[in-house]
């Protein structure tokens, strides 16, 4: 990994410009020369890299080598500028200038630090200290970021013994200039010290450091905004392998570990060494692009940078995949390779350096018969077993680890990775398929599925799985790649069975113990996104995959049909709960007609919860849980044969009677007046408790002759705050309230709008804060009420205030959300249903509802859902006569107005509109 060339030819010319006939030029002249040379160096590397004449690794090495020349020239100039204090006195310049860290490895990123060590036998005297100070200030004045230390050899050894970071930096120590003998003595002493301490302490420290680093930057190599340097599967993981090999064997490059005569006896195959180089090169290329695009030491590949870097690396659209998605898949596959290479090489280095583990018989006849043994208390293949001769032993080993609560030995991981290709032979093996199904549906299944995925077994065992590995969706809603999301969903299913989510998802936790098709449920979760990335409806394509794969896994025809149906309909519950009015009887009846059986409804609800919880930590909240729960019970009642949707008049009468029962203490004239205010839709939209609260609110408002009444109620169980507004109805009321709520920082998640028989509006909004929780701070609730009053009175300039609201971060703007409008006259018997899709922004709901009101339509209810930066808002509307909007001319005008409202300045309004 170290450059083999000497510093380039620029060194003599540069030195000649800095030191003329042994006399240094003035510092300002030298600084100008150095700045011009540094600019030329950086420009040469950037031009060659961006012209694709250099790979990332080649550019990193060349930049380091060119920087060596500049640092060497500065060192020569420094010695000329800092002579002995007394004429004729001997020079004290005894230090060695050494590169450490990444610069010491001979690779340098455009905006990375230059780490230097001023090394000496004894503490530096006045001249040496002045020289160090002069050299550092010159580097700083050049605008370089310099990490530095001044130590003696003994201090280095002592500091390295107590600090693994220093020890790691010194492993990369490389001579630049100065006293070479000091450098050579240090290398000999440091090598002896490493040998004396052994690999074990260093290995333990690097593992602990890696664990901490992964916890900070990402435990998964499949996060959709990865940290290229520090995240799992990133450059630092590869560097850790190099440090271990360097510490244990003194090798400079990974290919030195190939072949029977290499240190350790051939720890890598030629193919594995090539994989390391490919990963190293690819990640360095990404890193260079990141630095050049941002103009800083940026290591995180955020959404806004992904399409830019992907395009610079030549990734274009192929088939159904965008260039950015192809680029990110390559990155994720590279990260996966780094994880595998770590599991493959690290235990081999450990054993080659520390000796083979003490392999003992399993002490368990069944385990021994299955071909297993134990080492360090962990399970591995018995020495006399060859995976190539018995590929199913891979699954038996994982099952043995699960059943006996054992860890898989690192050497077994190594064997699994090297032999994963034999999984192909198990596809039609009934015994192997039964083993796999047992692992999928058994204890701690996500843990073992992740093992099988990381070692590459799943991709060989199920070709369809290979197509989703590393597949990302370029949006801000999904946190993981498709296969990692799937394993997370299996984990949610397992957690539900262990009753760990009782408070978060009580209904799903209860139902999972009642399902009779448990195996089908687990397989459906595994396959629910299996057909993503193929173009077309992934639910329909996935259902076909299920029909082909399930019989192979050993599922019965009934189970196979159930899995296929679940995959086909896995979005039905969530789409209905969040996009449709579940108080509309037709909504419930439509789902009941599709589901048809209580068992399927239970399975679908549990699958929906697992899918949503696995998307990311911010997707699930109490409000969504409430909507799913209410939808489930209403459909379940229909399927059970109950009269959940009796005749409308009967239901209205029941609701009025229930409300009257709670209002026994109210004066009869007030009660009678309230009972006559609501149209049927109002009585069917709320429970009796809410009707009672409305009655008291209306009574108080009329007694006070208040033109506007605003009441708020925090509902902790649902993670929402209910805002009820009672005032005179007029066109655009919803829009003005929505605008006021946006200015207050509240996000609307649901709304019910009702005009009473007295011409007053009784509008109810359920809102959350930016974090997805209840809007509950007293001062914010008070401000919210004031803003609604100011908005309705015209004293609040909504457009100006909304324009001041914080916009989304730049990294999210790269995600394109085309505006889309769907007008549906079949989803409801009484209303036209409008669905709008577009980029979420402050005040979007205000703009959209203003457009609807501007077309003379009345909004009966609104259902607001956000998926990352995508807003999906659904409105149930009628015209001024209380009828559906069916006139084509009116529909055309409506869709045009909505597209204008959706078209933020940075989003072109060129999307189509679908009419259902």
TrEMBL record:
<dbReference type="InterPro" id="IPR010043">
    <property type="entry name" value="UTase/UR"/>
</dbReference>
<dbReference type="Pfam" id="PF08335">
    <property type="entry name" value="GlnD_UR_UTase"/>
</dbReference>
<dbReference type="InterPro" id="IPR002912">
    <property type="entry name" value="ACT_dom"/>
</dbReference>
<comment type="similarity">
    <text>Belongs to the GlnD family.</text>
</comment>
<protein>
    <recommendedName>
        <fullName>Bifunctional uridylyltransferase/uridylyl-removing enzyme</fullName>
        <ecNumber>2.7.7.59</ecNumber>
        <ecNumber>3.1.4.-</ecNumber>
    </recommendedName>
</protein>
<comment type="function">
    <text>Modifies, by uridylylation and deuridylylation, the PII regulatory proteins (GlnB and homologs), in response to the nitrogen status of the cell that GlnD senses through the glutamine level. Under low glutamine levels, catalyzes the conversion of the PII proteins and UTP to PII-UMP and PPi, while under higher glutamine levels, GlnD hydrolyzes PII-UMP to PII and UMP (deuridylylation). Thus, controls uridylylation state and activity of the PII proteins, and plays an important role in the regulation of nitrogen metabolism.</text>
</comment>
<feature type="domain" description="ACT">
    <location>
        <begin position="833"/>
        <end position="916"/>
    </location>
</feature>
<keyword id="KW-0511">Multifunctional enzyme</keyword>
<keyword id="KW-0460">Magnesium</keyword>
<dbReference type="InterPro" id="IPR043519">
    <property type="entry name" value="NT_sf"/>
</dbReference>
<dbReference type="InterPro" id="IPR002934">
    <property type="entry name" value="Polymerase_NTP_transf_dom"/>
</dbReference>
<dbReference type="GO" id="GO:0008773">
    <property type="term" value="F:[protein-PII] uridylyltransferase activity"/>
</dbReference>
<feature type="domain" description="HD">
    <location>
        <begin position="482"/>
        <end position="598"/>
    </location>
</feature>
<dbReference type="InterPro" id="IPR006674">
    <property type="entry name" value="HD_domain"/>
</dbReference>
<keyword id="KW-0548">Nucleotidyltransferase</keyword>
<dbReference type="Pfam" id="PF01966">
    <property type="entry name" value="HD"/>
</dbReference>
<dbReference type="InterPro" id="IPR013546">
    <property type="entry name" value="PII_UdlTrfase/GS_AdlTrfase"/>
</dbReference>
<keyword id="KW-0378">Hydrolase</keyword>
<dbReference type="Pfam" id="PF01909">
    <property type="entry name" value="NTP_transf_2"/>
</dbReference>
<dbReference type="GO" id="GO:0006808">
    <property type="term" value="P:regulation of nitrogen utilization"/>
</dbReference>
<keyword id="KW-0808">Transferase</keyword>
<feature type="region of interest" description="Uridylyltransferase">
    <location>
        <begin position="1"/>
        <end position="366"/>
    </location>
</feature>
<dbReference type="GO" id="GO:0008081">
    <property type="term" value="F:phosphoric diester hydrolase activity"/>
</dbReference>
<feature type="domain" description="ACT">
    <location>
        <begin position="722"/>
        <end position="799"/>
    </location>
</feature>
<dbReference type="InterPro" id="IPR045865">
    <property type="entry name" value="ACT-like_dom_sf"/>
</dbReference>
């Amino acid at each position: 990994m170290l450059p083999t060339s000497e510093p380039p030819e620029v060194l003599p010319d540069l030195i000649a410009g800095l030191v003329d006939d042994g006399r240094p030029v003035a510092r300002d002249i030298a600084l100008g020369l150095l700045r011009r040379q540094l600019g030329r160096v950086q420009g040469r590397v950037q031009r060659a890299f961006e012209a694709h004449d250099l790979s990332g690794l080649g550019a990193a090495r060349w930049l380091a080598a060119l920087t060596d020349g500049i640092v060497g020239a500065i060192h020569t100039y420094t010695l000329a500028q800092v002579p002995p204090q007394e004429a004729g006195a001997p020079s004290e310049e005894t230090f060695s200038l050494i590169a450490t860290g990444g610069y010491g490895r001979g690779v340098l990123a455009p905006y990375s630090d230059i780490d230097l060590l001023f090394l000496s036998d004894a503490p530096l005297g006045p001249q040496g200290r002045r020289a160090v100070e002069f050299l550092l200030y010159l580097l700083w004045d050049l605008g370089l970021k310099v990490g530095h230390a001044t130590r003696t050899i003994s201090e280095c050894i002592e500091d390295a013994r107590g600090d693994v970071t220093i020890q790691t930096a010194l492993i990369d120590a490389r001579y630049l200039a100065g006293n070479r003998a000091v450098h050579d003595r240090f290398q000999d002493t440091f090598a002896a010290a490493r040998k004396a301490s052994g690999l074990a302490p260093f290995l333990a420290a690097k593992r602990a450091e890696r664990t901490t680093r992964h916890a900070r930057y990402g435990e998964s190599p499949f996060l959709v905004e990865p940290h290229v340097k520090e995240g799992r599967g990133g450059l630092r993981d590869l560097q850790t392998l190099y440090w271990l090999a360097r510490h244990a064997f003194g090798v400079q490059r990974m290919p030195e570990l190939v072949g029977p005569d290499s240190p350790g006896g051939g720890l890598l195959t030629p193919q594995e060494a090539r994989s390391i180089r490919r990963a190293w090169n690819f990640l360095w290329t990404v890193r260079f692009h990141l630095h050049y695009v941002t103009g800083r030491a940026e290591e995180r590949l955020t959404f806004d940078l992904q399409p830019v870097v992907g395009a610079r690396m030549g990734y274009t659209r192929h088939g159904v995949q965008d260039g950015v998605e192809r680029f990110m898949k390559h990155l994720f596959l590279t990260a996966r390779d780094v994880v595998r290479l770590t599991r493959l090489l690290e235990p081999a280095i450990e054993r080659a350096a520390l000796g083979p583990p003490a392999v003992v018989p399993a002490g368990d006849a069944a385990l021994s018969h299955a071909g297993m043994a134990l080492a360090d208390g962990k399970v591995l293949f018995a020495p006399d077993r060859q995976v190539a001769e018995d590929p199913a032993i891979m699954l038996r080993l994982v099952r043995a680890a699960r059943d006996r609560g054992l860890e898989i030995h690192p050497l077994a991981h190594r064997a699994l990775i090297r032999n994963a290709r034999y999984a192909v032979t198990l596809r039609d093996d009934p015994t192997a398929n039964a083993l796999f199904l047992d692992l999928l549906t058994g204890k701690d299944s996500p843990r073992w599925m992740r093992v099988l995925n990381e070692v590459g077994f799943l991709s060989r065992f199920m070709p369809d799985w290979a197509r989703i590995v590393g597949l990302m969706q370029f949006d801000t809603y999904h946190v993981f790649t498709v296969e990692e999301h799937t394993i997370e969903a299996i984990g949610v299913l397992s957690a539900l069975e262990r009753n760990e989510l009782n408070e978060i998802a009580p209904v799903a936790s209860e139902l999972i113990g009642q399902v009779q098709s448990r195996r089908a449920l687990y397989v459906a979760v595994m396959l629910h996104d299996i057909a993503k990335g193929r173009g077309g409806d992934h639910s329909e394509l996935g259902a076909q995959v299920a029909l082909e794969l399930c019989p192979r896994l050993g599922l019965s025809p009934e189970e196979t049909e159930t899995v296929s149906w679940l995959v086909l309909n896995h979005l039905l519950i969530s789409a209905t709960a969040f996009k449709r009015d579940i108080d509309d009887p037709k909504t419930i009846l439509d789902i009941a007609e599709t589901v048809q059986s209580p068992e399927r409804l239970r399975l679908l609800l549990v699958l929906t919860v697992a899918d949503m919880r696995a998307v990311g930590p911010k997707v699930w909240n109490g409000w969504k849980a409430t909507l799913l729960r209410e939808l489930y019970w209403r459909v379940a009642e229909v399927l059970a044969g109950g009269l959940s949707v009796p005749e409308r008049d009967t239901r209205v009468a029941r609701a009025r009677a229930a409300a009257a029962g709670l209002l026994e203490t109210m004066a009869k004239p007030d009660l009678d007046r309230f009972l006559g205010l609501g149209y049927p839709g109002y009585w069917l939209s709320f429970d009796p408790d809410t009707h009672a609260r409305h009655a008291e609110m209306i009574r108080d408002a009329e007694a006070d002759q208040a033109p506007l009444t605003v009441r708020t109620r925090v509902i902790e169980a649902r993670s929402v705050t209910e805002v009820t507004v009672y005032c005179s109805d007029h066109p655009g009321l919803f829009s003005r309230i929505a605008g006021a709520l946006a200015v207050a920082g509240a996000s609307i998640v649901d709304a019910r709008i009702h005009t009473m028989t007295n011409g007053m509006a009784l509008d109810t909004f359920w809102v959350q804060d930016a974090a997805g929780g209840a809007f509950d701070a007293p001062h914010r609730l008070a401000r919210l009420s004031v803003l609604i009053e100011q908005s309705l009175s015209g004293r609040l300039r909504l457009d100006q205030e909304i324009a001041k609201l914080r916009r989304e971060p730049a990294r999210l703007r790269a995600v394109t959300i085309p505006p889309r409008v769907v007008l549906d006259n079949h989803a409801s018997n009484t209303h036209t249903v409008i669905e709008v899709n577009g980029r979420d922004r402050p005040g979007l709901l205000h703009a959209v509802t203003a457009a609807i009101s501007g077309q003379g339509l009345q909004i009966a209810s609104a259902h607001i859902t956000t998926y990352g930066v995508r807003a999906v808002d659904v409105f149930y509307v009628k015209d001024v006569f209380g009828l559906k909007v069916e006139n084509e001319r009116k529909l055309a005008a409506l869709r045009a107005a909505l597209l204008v409202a959706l078209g933020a300045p940075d989003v072109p309004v060129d999307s189509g509109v679908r009419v259902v």
